[in-house]
Write a structure and sequence with these properties.
alpha/beta; Metallo-beta-lactamase, Chain A; 8-stranded mixed sheet
């Protein structure tokens, strides 16, 4: 069985290369990564309308060509809540929305969450689909919750490849877990996790939120994202959203210690492509050798 490949591009941007079908979540590229990006994806999924998740320059580059089929978005990417400057501040601009200003409308499809956060205690019914059968792929949606209006929800996506029996859940910027996540319990191989437990500004229960999420979903693997791995080499330019951590390795160890035996933490570095051995679904860790000299400096002269 052909191996899979995964890459975290920084922020919430993530790709999964499966060979027969390739997907990307919230692509957000800059400089040479954007310049040399190729439209290799069949489907692209956008969790919400903030500029670091729904990025018009990146989408214009990737949503084209013979291979590309559909950009799936939450409703706010096409019907943003107004006034935008009040609801999203610097995170979205009226000139950038709707995304159909930049892409053909027939290439964009709105999805609504199937599994909802009911803490708002209101009745909600959505007009569109919340799951899809895309041939090789099955797609199911969850509510993400980042600055969403109750009737303009944000989306996380559980995408499963039927033949390869591999699944990826991109949770979007979900800050607080909720009971309905138990509906996908045990069906997630790779959880692309962003905001739960990453920052202290969420309050004293930020670690418990992460643990509650893991208990509800029970993913096989957890890939932490949306933080800066290295200010000098991170694919996202310095100062454009992702928080820095004082010590990346210590941060990963903190998550691993907190998670305990709930899951296996995978410490991806932004910008690096990782090979996933199939059907075992194990990441292959590799060495890259760089020789900086041919003769040891202490032997010169």
């Amino acid at each position: 069985m052909e191996n899979a490949f995964m890459r975290w591009w920084g922020c919430g941007a993530f790709e999964v290369i499966l060979g027969d079908v390739n997907i990307a979540f919230d692509p957000y590229l800059f400089k040479e990564n954007l310049e040399f990006a190729e439209p290799i994806y069949d489907y692209i999924f956008i969790s919400h309308e903030h500029f670091d998740h729904c990025h018009p320059p990146t989408l214009q580059k990737l949503c084209q060509g013979d291979r590309f089929k559909t950009l799936f978005v939450n409703p706010g990417c096409v019907h943003p809540v107004l006034p935008i400057d009040k609801n999203y501040g610097d995170a979205a601009f009226e000139r950038d929305l709707p995304i159909t200003k930049y892409l053909p409308a027939d290439k964009v499809q709105i999805l609504y969450p199937k599994h909802l956060d009911c803490s708002q205690a209101i009745s909600r019914a959505f007009p569109g689909p919340s799951e899809l059968d895309l041939g090789a792929l099955k797609v199911e949606t969850i509510e993400s919750g980042e600055n969403s209006d109750p009737h303009t929800p944000t989306c996380g996506y559980l995408v499963s490849h039927k033949e390869k029996d591999i699944s990826v859940l991109h949770s979007g910027d979900m800050h607080v877990p909720y009971p309905a996540l138990k509906n996908i319990q045990g069906r997630v191989d790779f959880l692309i996790h962003m905001k739960l437990g990453l920052t202290e500004w969420e309050g004293p229960n930020h670690t418990q939120n992460l643990l509650d999420c893991l208990d509800l979903i029970q993913p096989r693997y957890l890939i932490p994202t949306h933080y800066r791995t290295d200010s000098a080499s991170d694919p996202i330019p310095h100062g454009t959203w992702p928080p820095n951590v004082t010590d990346v390795l210590a941060f990963i160890e903190w998550i691993r210690e907190a998670a305990g035996d709930r899951t296996t933490v995978l410490p991806f570095t932004a910008g690096t492509q990782y090979e996933v051995e199939m059907p075992a679904k194990k990441v292959i860790w590799k060495w890259n050798w760089f020789n900086t000299w041919t003769v040891p400096p202490w032997r010169e002269g």
